[in-house]
Amino acid sequence: MSSDEDEGWVPFSRRPGWSDVVPIPQDDGPNPVVPIAYRDEFRETMDYFRAVYFANERSYRSLQLTSEAIKINPGNYTVWHFRRLIIDSLNVDLWEELEYVDEIASSNSKNYQIWHHRRWLAEKLGTGSANKELEFTKKILALDAKNYHAWSHRQWVLQAFGGWEDELDYCCQLLDDDIFNNSAWNQRYFVITRSPLLGGLQGTRESEGRYAVEAILKNPENESPWRYLRGLYKGDPDLLVGASLVSEVCLKVLQTSHNCIFALCLLLDLLSHGLQPCTELRTAVQRLSSEMELPDASLPGTVCSILERMDPMRSNYWAWRRSNLPCQAS
Amino acid sequence: MEAGELEAEKHVRFILAVEKVLSSLERSRPLFLRLLLLPLSNQPSVDSQRKDDFEALAMEHLRMNGAYWGLTTLYLLHRLDAVDLDEVVSWVLECQHESGGFAGNIGHDPHILYTLSAVQVLALLDKLDVLDADKVSNYVARLQNEDGSFSGDEWGEIDTRFSYCAICCLSILHHLDKINVEKAVNYIVSCKNLDGGFGCTPGAESHAGQIFCCIGALAITGSLNHVDKDLLGWWLCERQVKSGGLNGRPEKLPDVCYSWWVLSSLIIIDRVHWIDKNKLARFILDCQDKENGGISDRPDDAVDVFHTYFGVAGLSLLEYPGIKAIDPAYALPVDTVNKIFFGRLIVRTWRS
Ligand SMILES: [Zn+2]
Question: Signal peptide position in this chain (chain A) (predicted)?
Fold first, then answer.
């Protein structure tokens, strides 16, 4: 809480418009405790809030009071509830209310209440609020590109009101800024699977496959594009095994990079699903294996041994993968 | 794991001290009256409390969660005796709204998050019989939507967290029959992602906290057959980073609270051996304030009750010596869960 803005704060007890209200302190209970001087403002604001809340006074001064209470503690959900009741009763201009949320949101962008309030407003305003909501989430995501609330609000707006046209470009832009941003990868998948304009997985698989491969080759240690690539073939292992672009990216990474855990892992999946590996793939795996002085084994078995060695923290997982290989492969 | 590295007694004192500060700030009743019996030297000095004071005030509306975190930690550390149980029970009941739901504190509005915490606290204290279970369950059941999802309160925010709260709460109260379980399960399954994880709504990014909620709810309803256990298990074990800690999403920093969310999920789907448990225990122990008690999100950060609970609960799941066992789905001590379901088979399905 910044204190400089608070310096002009006038206690409610000295405000002319509030002389008729008797503040209600929090229940004292059986143990009187020494009063603490700290944050009198907080206490007094909440005492007056309780007074209007219990009296169910839905007035403009109550609305103003909830603004002050929210400023002090935006997490207090009861204050937000009451604010919505007041807005409904007084028919407050909802666009103005959106402006108000704009003002406080950037410094409280991880607060559940603010996003919930925003959604409530947008629902009431309907399709007309779509652009404003997309812009608003953009603004928040510019500050924190992984803000979970902002993404979930944005997805809701797209599904409720539309606005898909520029969404894939927006994902590209965020991934250009940070190719490791898993939220942006997730949004990308959301767009290609749910946008009414793109033809679903079938319509996008090829171009998206190339996009993912390019991202992988730049940063083979980046978990997200590897999962994205798999996701393009979700539920269809034959299609995955048959896609030359998939086995090729594994090979390229094995040949050129030290960070090849995800490449080996995908290769393992391909082999388990019946891929007949080309000579180059065999050679690349063999090279790693001999560098590590591993004993001879089948190709999938060797991949598991390499992974156990490269990724000791998850050695049990890789050992389990080995024990699960189809008989002819192990 | 070596016993004796956990500063259990200091954590107990930290929790009791925080609770006292909270009570005095709110000018409400100190729940943990016995703290007053502790020697003064163990109570935080007024100066070092200033910053905490404000945080405590800002926490006023979610005190029910705080009570659950604090009391469960005390239970796991064998120190629930430090608390005046009758005082807690009467405070919890005062937070109940006429609708049957519970608020985060006296005078606030009811919400499903606090309703679950209230039911968990009463279960923990073995006082569920003070509740009108029908009334509470009806409140929860009314929050189910047509598509099977749950809202958090009458204002309608939807999130798989609330599905978990509803299902866990109704299961503890033996009233799952009041909702459409099949629809509830289908909604959760619709939030499954390409990586095997779950988000807050369909299409939302996988997040370890949401995964815990979804897996916990599916476990309680006996619906784990909908989970791609191997795929999800791999994603979850990829959350372990070099320091041994766990993060909640790719490329995020490790955080003690994920020890709970990731670990409990891994245990429920029977894949916990896929991570390095010793390294994780080391990470949690390194997040202790060894002098004044409490556990933080990462080594050398400021401690709080939330992370103290998740740290201790995580160590419990790792079978750290001297800590009571906690159930990964109900987030309650195993003793408590056994008591609730004595003679019932449902809780046994994911524990061997
Ligand atoms: Zn945390």
Answer: none
Q: Is the dihedral of CA B279, B280, B285, B287 positive or negative?
A: positive
**Cα–Cα nearest to B94, from B137, B130, B129:** B130
Residue B69's domain comprises: 9-15+56-131
- Is residue B86 within 8 Å of B32, Cβ to Cβ? no
| B235 is a domain residue | yes
Question: What percent of chain B stands above pLDDT 70?
Answer: 85
* Cβ contact B251–A182 (<8 Å): yes
Catalytic residues of A: 110
Same domain, B212 and B264: no
> Which pLDDT belongs to residue A2?
43
Selected residue with higher pLDDT from B303 and B178: B178
Looking at the fold, whether B82 and B125 belong to one and the same domain comes out as yes
Residues in chain B with CB shorter than 8 Å from the CB of A36 are 24-25, 53
Last residue of a domain, one of B222, B238, B256: B222
- The verdict on B247 and B337 lying in the same domain is yes
CB crowding A13-37: b at 16 or more within 10 Å, else e = eeeeebeebebbebeebeeebeebe
Within a domain: B34: no
Q: Is residue A84 part of a domain?
A: yes
State in Å: Cα B256 to ligand 1 middle: 6
- Check if the beta carbon of residue B207 is closer than 8 Å to that of residue B197: yes
Residues B212, B159, single domain; the answer is yes
Domain end point (choices B189, B222, B255) = B222
Q: What is the pLDDT of residue A4?
A: 45
Start-to-end Cα distance in chain B: 22
Tell me which amino acid residue A72 is: I
- What range defines the domain where residue A55 resides? 1-92
pLDDT above 70 for B338: yes
Is B40 contained in some domain? no
Rounded to the nearest angstrom, the distance between the alpha carbon of B254 and the centre of ligand 1 is: 8
Q: Which value does ipTM take for this structure? A: 0.88
Q: pLDDT 10s per residue in chain A (330 long)? A: 444 445 578 889 888 889 899 888 765 343 333 333 336 788 889 899 999 999 999 999 999 999 999 988 888 899 999 999 999 999 999 999 999 999 998 888 888 899 999 999 999 999 999 999 999 999 999 999 999 999 999 999 999 999 999 999 999 999 999 999 999 999 999 999 999 999 999 999 999 999 999 999 999 999 999 999 999 998 899 999 999 999 999 999 999 988 899 999 999 999 999 999 999 999 999 999 999 999 988 999 999 999 999 999 999 999 999 999 876 544
DSSP A173-233: HHHHH-TT-HHHHHHHHHHHHH-TTS-HHHHHHHHHHHHHHHHHHH-TT-HHHHHHHHHTT
Statement to judge: residues B67 and B168 lie in one domain: no
Q: Distance (Å, rounded) from C-alpha B10 to C-alpha A53?
A: 40
Inside any domain, residue A161: no
Q: Does residue B247 share a domain with residue B297?
A: yes
Does residue B46 belong to any structural domain of this protein? no
| CB < 8 Å to A146, chain B | 249, 252
Closest-CA residue of chain B to A178: B251
Q: What is the per-residue pLDDT for A37?
A: 39
Q: Give yes or no: residues B182 and B216 share one domain.
A: yes
B294 and B276 within one domain: yes
User: Which of B28, B50, B234 faces A38 most closely, judged by CB atoms?
Assistant: B50
Domain count for chain B:
3
